[in-house]
Every structure is written in C-alpha cells, then in structure tokens.
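Dear V.,

Thank you for sending over the compound details. I've combined the ligand you provided, zinc ion, with the protein sequence from our construct and run the structure prediction for the complex. I'm sharing the raw inputs here so there's no ambiguity about protonation or stereochemistry in the SMILES, which I know was a concern on your side last time.
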Amino acid sequence: MKKRIKHFLQVLLSVILVWLVIFLTINIQSIKDLARFLIGNKNYAYLSNDLVPTDSEYKNLYDFVNLNRDLSVIPESYRSNEPSYNKILSPVDKINYNRMVFIMKCLDSLNIKYDTIWVPDRASRLPAYTCNIFIKENESNIFTIITAHYDNLNKPDYQGALDNSSSVAILLNTIQNCKDLLEVKNVAFLFTTMEEQGMFGAEHFLNYTKDHNFKINKVICLDGIGRGDLSAMNNCMGSFGFKFRNWCFKEKLFTGSSFKDCPDYSKVDKSLINLNKYNIKILHSFLSSTDGRVFIRAGIPTIHLTSNDIPHFLKVMHTNQDRIDGLHYRSLKQCEEIISDIVKNIE
Ligand SMILES: [Zn+2]
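Below is the predicted structure of the protein with zinc ion bound, written out as structure tokens.
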C-alpha cells in the first residue's frame, strides 16, 4: 500500500514539474516584461529628469496643452470662423475645438495645405464640431499615413501631455522638418479627432479614403510618446493590458483592475519599420488600444509607436497628472528624428 502511495506521489510530482516547466516556458516573455515593469515601478518618480525646455522647438507643446486657459496663441480670426452650431458648446467642450484650430494655425503658418474631414459626435449626439485634419501634398493615390489623435478628454486643466499632445507636437515638427519633401514622397499625415470617444475620427476617415479611392500602404500611429524609449506595441481589438497565459495555458489579459479573456490582437508587424535601425523595442506582453485598431480591422498594415515607461503611463493616463513636466525631452526628439528619417526614406 505504502509503495502505491509513493508511486502515486512520484507521478503527481512529475506531472507538476512538467506543468511548471511548460508554464514558465510559454510565459517567459511575460515574466521578463513583468520583471522590467516591477523594477521600473519601484524606481518610478513622476517628475522628468529631462524636462522639455519652454524655449525649444517644443514650445508648441506648451501652447497646445494650455488651450483651455490661454487662447492668445490662436488669433481671433480663426475662432470667428467656427461653424454657427459651435456656439452652443460649453467652454469645456470647446477644448478640442481649440486644439483643432491650433493645428490648422500651425499648418497655415508653414504654408501646408490640408483637408478638413468633419466628424459627427456619435456618442453625445452633438453636431460635428471637430474634424480630422489630413495633409497630402503629393498627387499619388497610394501612400503611407503617419497619424496621431489630437483630441483630449474634456476636463478643465487636463493637459493630456503623454496622451496625446506630445505626438501632435512631434508630428507638427516632423512636417516642418520635411516640408520640402512632401510633394515628392508618397506620404500623408493625419490628425484624428474623437479617439477618446471610440475612435470615431479614424473610422470616419476610412469612408473618406474610400470616396477618394486612396490605397493606404501602411499606417504609423503615434500615441503615448514622450517618456522613455520609443517602442512598438501590439494592437488590441479590446482594451489596453498585460497579456500572459494562465494555469491551463489560456491567454488572459490583466487590464490593471481586472483579469479577462484576451481579446483579439495583432502582433507588431516588423516589416513596416526597420526596428533595428532605429533601435525601437517591442513591448511584447502589452496590448494597446488606439486608432491603430481601426486601420487593422480595415486590413491596412499598421504599427503603433509609443513609449516604454509603462509605470508612468499607468500612473498618469487620463488623469490631470498627465502633464508636460513628466515628459522626457529626448523622447520627443528621438521620435521626431526617427519619423523624419522614415519620411525621407519613403519612395
Ligand atoms: Zn491616446
């Protein structure tokens, strides 16, 4: 009898060991990423050790995030052009309207032509009051799109520095850097609205591309850039989170507050950008939720670029703590230089 029990325990132990080896092996990437996150979290301090200078080329970022308070950076002539229905908007609702007008003003000052694609607000049922801003200086109907959403949460004193004011400033500076090339490169730029309200802006843009018979080669989507190193994240069809396999090897997602079955996602497509050349890391175990998903659903190859300081991202996202003094100047410059180089190397 004793022998049988001993034998049973030996078999049980072997099964547990085999399970443990498989569990650790299939989760090795998640374990590495979790360890990196925990170390980063332990050493985390909110304030940036590389503040964005106010007198640099990123002065536009300071202007951009203060638009709910300081409208002096937008000339009155721009604001008086607003559609008449805009008059019913509250000051808080005007935040995104002012952000849109600010981008137009910057493009006008560079002499860059753009299309305005007005987007109805399906969530609040308000009439359209913001638009996607689309820049395509070349004649071709086949091109790459570099995009960032410009809308913020409608909250007083909310800067949305990391999400997504920084990417807008980077894109504006890139357009300025590459201004003379835009006519000969098959590239377009897109500032989307209503990403925060279910990515309606990006969805609406797809109709526009169909109407114009555009064929989009690929999309480079900037969201969450400005703290740490430039990185690429898997595009998720559900929410942001950390993915791993549970005890029965089923893929799960931890959203920060709950565990759920892992939604569909598409892995980073390494063929879209030369990740080695630019030293862009892949955040393998993290899934992002941004405009990129809309393009992927439409079958367009898309890569989402972001920053790798996940502890900062989780601490500030969608709170009034998401401010410029938490950003790294070198992160903005790194991304701007890479995107400018990508534009220069497009056919
Ligand atoms: Zn965002």
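A first observation: The chain has two domains: 1-33, 44-345.

Warm regards,
I. M.
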